[in-house]
Amino acid sequence: MGNKELFLILSIFIFCIFLIGFVSSVEMITSSAGVQYGDSILKEFEKAKINQSINDNETNQTFVHVLIDLKDGSEADALISSFSEEEFKIVSYYNGSSSVGVLITKEAFNKLINDSRVEKVYYEVSIHAFDREKLLQDYIYTSNTLYCFNRFGNC
Q1: Cα gap 16→10, rounded to integer Å
Q2: Buried b / exposed e across 99-131, counting CB within 10 Å, b at 16+?
Q3: Cβ atoms 101, 65 nearer than 8 A
Q4: Residues with Cβ < 8 Å from 54, sequence gap 6 or more?
């Protein structure tokens, strides 16, 4: 095995170690009720508090998007009904599912991590592969260009 191949293998190995460390950087904390939650949720509340970018204008509350894993999926309706609309907004829930996606306030989060029906709470990261506005603009431009070409010839 030559020096170049050894360097390449070592570089890939170091990159993989770095990537694993980067991906698994969320620390799970356990509440007094035994509920595990990511420290990234607390960080998001702090960030939102600082820049006030995720405020609900009606209630002036800061919300963070989280995913709740329940110990028993049949408890989901009871858990949801124990929160008011001002502190807890459902984003995704399928009847009978043991996971619920919600926008939640800091006060409701503190109540949630002390609820024995909850197993884990994760920060829900939104990842967009494409910029929807840019795709729409490109589509409209392309459609108009094709229409012009087909209708009038060379545009």
Answers
A1: 10
A2: bbbbbbbbebbeebbebebbebbbbbeeeeeee
A3: yes
A4: 48, 62, 63, 64
Q: Which two tokens stand for residue 144?
A: 């108009």
For 38-103, the DSSP string reads EHHHHHHHHHHHHH-TTEETTTTEE-EEEEEEESSGGGHHHHHHTS-TTTEEEEEE-TT-SEEEEE
Q: What are phi and psi of 110, to 5 degrees?
A: -65, -35
Identify which of 45, 95, 50 has the alpha carbon closest to the alpha carbon of residue 37: 45
63: which strand partners?
none
Could you report the per-residue pLDDT of 81-111, keeping only the tens digit for each?
999 988 889 888 877 778 899 999 999 999 9
| Each residue's pLDDT tens digit, 10-60 | 778 776 565 555 544 568 889 989 999 988 898 888 887 776 655 555 556
* Tokens matching residue 25: 């950087």
